[in-house]
Design brief:
Rossmann fold; AAA+_ATPase; ABC_transporter-like_ATP-bd; binds adenosine-5'-triphosphate; nucleotide-binding; alpha/beta; ATP binding; P-loop_NTPase; seven-stranded mixed beta sheet
Length: 267
């Protein structure tokens, strides 16, 4: 619930370890709300969210889950190093351990040449890397990122995705939201969302095979149209049943059109 409105409904999915899972859907469909639920800053009013065997937001997960929010979360008037030292200290790191972590994350996000630059003087892509570096200080096993590439040009987005890929190759699980469908090509699995519901939870290949579409954008549109058609049929059936008393006695026919979910256990 956000602002008294139910935002997410009937969602079931899992995120396999070591995978890059993309959460894709149009603005306002509930991507941020979903990620907030996984991180534990959004309390679901029904159902439950388990993260690495514990309830989302559990104290034991704090150092195991990294969260890069959509809004800037670093200080523009500090340098890259000053920001990282500040956040490392806030996490309780001290002395050489703090310095080691700071140097490690600066390298991981390829910001060594900008380490002494004020964040306010960095480009959009570099700015995003600083937020990412902060989230990496704890070496999280699960990294949740809310539209980390929004507003960046294709070249910079590509470079950032190379960093994400490297992290995944080293064993980090990444849950990344985006409303840019071409980023789907870089994910191992996709969660396609529309108006608070999941249209699909599958690998890109399975999604394309199931929908017989050439790319994810086309597949998404296909699923949106199928879902809209199913909703219209359900609405029509409800209207017919209200108008015709004899139909009220008959059980509702199941709808053949369903959202597409993988059946490989990774729902
Ligand atoms: N603080 C809030 N109070 C009330 N409603 C909210 C709040 N934040 C979001 N919402 C509503 O919840 C719904 C889902 O929002 P959410 O931010 O999860 O979508 P999103 O897919 O991440 O959008 P975007 O891609 O634009 O970031 C929207 O209809 C939005 O208006």
């Amino acid at each position: 619930m956000r602002g008294g409105n139910a935002v997410l409904r009937n969602l079931t999915f899992s995120v396999p370890r070591g995978c890059i899972v993309g959460v894709l859907g149009p603005s306002g469909c509930g991507k941020t709300t979903l990620l907030r639920s996984v991180v534990g800053v959004q309390q679901p009013t029904g159902g439950h969210v388990q993260v690495m065997g514990r309830p989302a937001g559990a104290a034991q997960l704090r150092t195991r889950v990294g969260y890069v929010t959509q809004a800037p979360s670093v200080y523009a008037d500090l340098t890259v190093l000053e920001n990282l030292r500040y956040f490392a200290a806030a996490l309780g790191m001290k002395g050489w351990r703090r310095e080691d972590s700071v140097v490690r994350v600066v390298r991981e996000v390829d910001l060594a040449s900008y380490a002494d630059n004020l964040v306010s003087r960095l480009s959009g892509g570099q700015y995003s890397r600083v937020s990412l570096a902060v989230a990496l200080l704890n070496r999280p096993e699960l990294l949740v990122m809310d539209e980390p590439t929004v507003g960046l040009d294709p070249m910079v987005r590509r470079e950032l995705w190379l960093v994400f890929q490297r992290l995944a190759d080293e064993g980090t699980t990444l849950l990344v939201s985006s409303h840019v469908m071409d980023e789907a090509d870089r994910c191992d699995r996709l969660l396609l969302m529309r108006t608070g519901q999941l249209l699909a939870s599958a690998s890109r290949e399975d999604l394309l095979r199931h929908t017989a579409c050439a790319d994810v954008e086309e597949a998404f549109m296909h699923l949106v149209e199928s879902a809209a058609a199913a909703e219209n049929r359900a609405r029509q059936r409800a209207a017919d049943r209200a108008l015709l008393p004899q139909l009220r006695e008959q059980p509702a026919a199941p709808d053949a059109e369903r959202s597409f979910f993988a059946t490989d256990g990774a729902r």
